[in-house]
Amino acid sequence: MKIFKTRYEKEAFLKSFLLFFLSIEFLVSVILYFHYSELIHSFKDKISLEMKNYSYTFEGDRFKVDLEKKNPDRAFYQLYEDNDEFYILVPIPFAENEVFKISYPKKEFLDHIKTYQKEVITEFLISSSIVIIISLIFSYISINPLRKSISLIEEVTRDIIHDINTPISSILINLKLLKLKYPSEPEIKRIQLAVKQLSYLHENLKTLTEGIKIHKEEINIKEIVEEELKIYESLYPDIEVEKHLKDVYKKLDKKALKRVISNILGNAFKHNLSKNGWIRIYLNENSLVVENSSKSVKNPEKVFDRYYREGQRGLGLGLSIVKRLCDEMGCKVTFKAFEDRVRIKIDFPH
Fold first, then answer.
1. How far is CA 310 from CA 50, 57, 266, 267, 286, in A?
2. For a FRET experiment, which of 222, 228, 311, 325 has its CA 20 to 30 Å from that of 345?
3. Rounded CA separation 199/231 (Å)
4. Residue 317 pLDDT more than 70?
5. Signed CA dihedral, 39, 45, 50, 51: sign only
6. Residue 335: which residues within 8 A CB-CB, separation 6 or more?
7. Quick check: pTM over 0.85?
8. What are the residue boundaries of the structural domains of the chain, listed by start?
9. What is the pLDDT of residues 287-313, one digit of tens each?
10. Which residues contact 52 (CB under 8 A, 6 or more apart)?
11. Per DSSP, which regions of the chain are E strands?
12. Domain at 213-350, CATH homologous superfamily
């Protein structure tokens, strides 16, 4: 069972999780840091108090006692620290130049601090585990609105596909009748091309929601390229097309490959330059390459993402569907952007 239905759900979940987890983890870390600092401070206060009490009786051997020359800059009964020990200075009655130095080894202090460190680390790990669980629950709940929105979009898309299927079929049938009646009318031809474009959009939406069952057969890729190219050349007569096509036969799904080539060519024509635009198409035994003049692409790594657009035209579905169908057929599709052109390449399976 898949937890995430789409990449967008997964991305939203990870972002929510990281935001919540890192925020709470930072707060927990700050709290434990102050807690650890307070433990050290309290232990120092405890040592200082015990040394003061020891100075009244000098009973026991927990602390070391030495004589030291009196230093006017050092206060009595105040805790001092050096590299090896903690100590306090205690006055000696009737002695003007000497004082008692009661000390506590720093090594013992550090051994005790290690115990505190283990306690704090344990508390941190337990707290982090709890934060991870809470963050996972919170993140999963937080993507529910996104999940509902995506589900609603898919439901609306399915309804649109169902609703426009009948009128498109009706228009195509009647256009065929009109073409038989008026075979030389250019308006009929233009309408037919426009309806075919609408039919392609319908097929893209259908592929998006329902997918395509792959049925591989031996097909001539050159024929499909030329068939689809003929449609777009009629719609965009000002774009110069240079083609180098060989007869290539591969065992692929004809319907899926036709959709892939149509989307790639449609993308090359639609997003070309308004003046002096060109397209170069190369087909050989190993690959199909479509290169076209274009404005610079800002985010080439996102061109295969569903709904991603760099301009106002289109729905951002074409190349997403290309990637999906190529993956299902075992083809590898790559996109490369240059300053004044773009290139998309499909490597056929061996």
1. 73, 84, 15, 12, 30
2. 311
3. 13
4. no
5. positive
6. 300, 303, 304, 319, 342, 343, 344, 345
7. no
8. 7-142, 145-210, 213-350
9. 999 999 988 888 888 888 776 666 655
10. 77, 88
11. 64-69, 80-81, 85-91, 98-105, 216-220, 240-245, 249-253, 278-283, 287-293, 332-337, 341-347
12. Histidine kinase-like ATPase, C-terminal domain (3.30.565.10)
Q: What is the identity of the amino acid at 134? A: I
First vs last C-alpha separation in the chain:
32
The answer to whether 145-210 and 213-350 have equal CATH topology is no
Distance between CA atoms of residues 103 and 85, nearest Å: 6
The pLDDT, as a whole number, for residue 314 is 47
DSSP string, 239-295: SEEEEEE---EEEEEHHHHHHHHHHHHHHHHHTS-SSS-EEEEEE-SSEEEEEEE-P
What angle in degrees, to the nearest 10, is found between the helix axes of 254-270 and 318-329?
Answer: 150
Residue 185 DSSP one-character state: -
Dig out the tokens for 117 from the structure: 């460190």
CATH topology for 145-210?
Helix Hairpins (1.10.287)
Q: Sort strands 287-293 and 278-283 into parallel, antiparallel or unpaired.
A: antiparallel
Q: What type of residue is 283? A: L
Q: Which two tokens stand for residue 113?
A: 């601090």
The DSSP secondary-structure symbol of 219 reads E
Structure tokens at 40: 């050290």
